[in-house]
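cron nightly-structures :: item 1 of 1
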Amino acid sequence: MAANDRKDPLLGHNFAVELDGITGTGFKECSGLDCSQNAIDYREGTDATLAKRKIPGLLSWSNISLKRGITSDHNLWDWQLKAAKGKVDRRSLSIIMLDSSGEEVMRWNVRNAWPVKWSGPSFDAASDNVAIESLEIAHEGIEVAKW
């Protein structure tokens, strides 16, 4: 392989989040891009062997966790509060991986997302850390738009 054909892995700090209707969504951390599928044991009474078969079960998506420094923008809190009051506002969410020049390389589009947990900052008078808020988001699936 020639040196110029080398494909270095992408770095985890180059990402952006697009959230319908909420601006100023620069996040320091995003996690939870995963899914799993259970394997169900199955055996019919007429099976000649004593072994169980495995069949695919339901697909399960993990909640996505977003963290950012608290600002005067309270749109994430308002969105969560609306859901907590029973008026769930499902939105589109995209998590975008960027290359070293800031160009989009991959995009995960999240369907029908809504907040299920908001956490405020921890306070410590002896620290100079940024105050962080986090939002946990449930959703109904992820599609990869670029790869």
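cron nightly-structures :: done
The mean pLDDT is 88.
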